[in-house]
From TrEMBL:
Record keyword Metal-binding present: no
GO BP annotations, alphabetical order: proteolysis
Gene responsible for this protein: LOC18595009
Family per similarity comment: Belongs to the peptidase A1 family.
Protein name in UniProt: Aspartic proteinase nepenthesin-1
InterPro entries for the chain: Aspartic_peptidase_A1, Aspartic_peptidase_AS, Pepsin-like_plant, PEPTIDASE_A1, Peptidase_aspartic_dom_sf, Plant_Aspart_Prot_A1, TAXi_C, TAXi_N
Signal sequence annotation: 1-19
PANTHER family: ASPARTIC PROTEINASE NANA, CHLOROPLAST, OS07G0603500 PROTEIN-RELATED
Organism ancestry: Eukaryota, Viridiplantae, Streptophyta, Embryophyta, Tracheophyta
Amino acid sequence: MKGWLIPLLFIVLPSIVQAQDSIKLELLHRHAPQLHARPKTQHERLKDLVHHDFIRHNRRQAWETPKTTTATASKTNAAIQMPLSAGRDFGIGQYVTTFKVGTPSQKFRLIVDTGSDLTWINCRYRCARGDNCTTQERGIKRGRVFRAHLSSSFRPIPCFSQMCKVELRNLFSLTICPTPLTPCAYDYRYIDGSDTMGVFANESVTVGLTNSRMARLHDVLIGCSDSSQGRTVKNVDGVLGLANSKYSFATKAAERWGGKFSYCLVDHLSHINASNYLIFGANNNQLTVLGNTRYTRLELNLVSFSYAVNVQGISIGGKMLDIPLQVWDTRKGGGTILDSGTSLSFLTDPAYQPVMAAIKMSVSKYPQVKLHGVPMEYCFNSTGFDETLVPKLIIHFADGARFEPHWRSYVISAADGVRCLGFLPARFPSVSVIGNIMQQNYLWEFDLEGNKLRFAPSSCTTR
């Protein structure tokens, strides 16, 4: 779909350096017990994650196009903090945050999605002006509705404007313009058939700072959606778009709060009861780092809406695998992105086959098993499993940096007494995806101004 949705999938625990140098969003996995959405068994949980991954990757393949937008310069060193809670996966997101919109502010629960560029909320605009509301509220009967007419800071984008006609075309703006003052309308469509319709506006949002104070962020582009169809989530009122695009909330927040954001993902099976955060602003130095900090180039112009990196190859057990270079080259149909909303990692076939062959060889002494509803190529009976058999996997970046995920991040626990190799195949040409399970127990900092990715092994806890 257009916003193929990259929701943040694990907890984020950056801590605070100074009073106002970052914004903080608390994260919970969508299976967190607090939201009563956790599957009963680990097997059911894996089925749910893999189902979401396939939907997501199909959307990505449908919408991959060259990208030209980068983040602009930082305006201030202040910071905001927003708590997040998990929500059920309905194809467009997995985490929920409290989001205050308008003047005076109205509170909503939005799905956090790093792959969607449109932030939208269930909203009444035309109905407040005397129109017939009967046909304007498909899909917004649950949850709260933003009353645009009650907000003094609500500023619709005119349909005759250059912004509507040109700049918002990627967000499915419509050409309908009966009068110069008619708001710019959109019909934002997803590949799975879901859609949301409404009008664009600039609005103010109220956010919490890391020093427990509040701040106002003005001229945030939002969608005032009076109509939506498709899969729904109870008690959720819209989507917070965090994609790498000009009008996403991530870009807007980064412009004001330091040009950076960071997160740290604990083990997806962890039972740690901790506050979890996504940070916008200067990176916190209080997070426990367990190894060397490394840097590699962050590519913001290669894959639409995505955070891409320049991979050169993969080694397993100290041996570089024979993988064609075009697999990693976006100019030849390949490339690699980090996606916090995809659980497992996707490798295109020329990389998938040698990686799987090398790891399978190390665990071949254990009986292979099939898990119902889990389309993963290789699972095995892990009773008495010896982890020292697992070879070290290293992803090598073109500038010399190396990412060394923990073995549990690619030989994953799938059910009681069962482990699976945590990769899924993708056809070539398309991008490969470093998913959030592969990213776990690492601190990741995305520098949107310096085009730099910082990463280091971490316990994701503060010192």
